[in-house]
What we know:
Helix content is 1%, strand content 22%.
Amino acid sequence: MAGEDDSGAAAGSRSNGAAGHAGDSTTGSSGAPTTEGSAGDNSTGGDEPVSGSGGTTTTGAGGAAETGGGTAAGAGGAAGKGGSGGSAGAPPAPVGSKCTLNAQCALGFCVDGVCCENACTGNCKACSAAGQCNLTPTDDAGCGTITCPTSTSCRTYQGPITTNRCASFGVCKTVTACTSTTKAARTPCPVTTGGPELCDASGTCVSPTISCGGVNCPLNTNVCCAGGDTFTCLARAGGNECQAQNKGGLIACDEPGDCPINTQCCITDSPAGNFYSCSTGASCPASGGVAHFYPICKSPAIPTALACPAQTSCSIYTGPTTFEVCH
């Protein structure tokens, strides 16, 4: 008979593991909103007001979803506030106000740091502190260099004028503003043609001219000779013209003004003849021996006799009767 089937312990039954827990849904943190934009600064007063720039808007980032099934994203951050606009600039300034730019002045003219009534252009013009174009500056480079005349032997001019060049409002100085110094009358000046030349009172170098028998005889180019009352004006030819042509004595002066300063017009009476010439000192040489020297006191150039030293008188001595000397 069949035997009873005894099995070992029954095979163990298989069971599933417990289901995992669903991941919790975690909400991400909200992104932080940006700080609100700062207000724009006021612009400097000018032609147009300038607005300040607004603040930028930044959206907050969403929070990350947790692993394990969470699905919700964090909410975005709030937008930043825009900045407020800048206030309008200062209005243009009236005439007389301080300024640095034309645009700062109501009339558009900033002249020398002052809002002026106009552009105040042109030489020797300036704007007053009250904004009036009515001042005369001392100098204006726009006048340029004022060149003065060339100095002469009788007149010395200042150098070129490069400062203080304004004569009046809107007017530059000219050559007439050049100053000069004049040498004393009768100062010897350069001889250009061989004869004497002297400075006159106006600062011009001129030749003495004597009346040689009624003829004007310029002594820088000519000589006057007198034999008694006979006069002859001869061209200069190297000296001794009167004697060489037997025309009498030399008349080199007929008044003190024909001679250099601090000299005298004197007659020289000597065995060699008589003649008029300029002394080498302030007075005529002392007479002595056979030579006599006397100052002229009357001539065609001196219609009214000059005063004579004490104990002398003005009268004809020798030579031309139209010449008188103190003796």
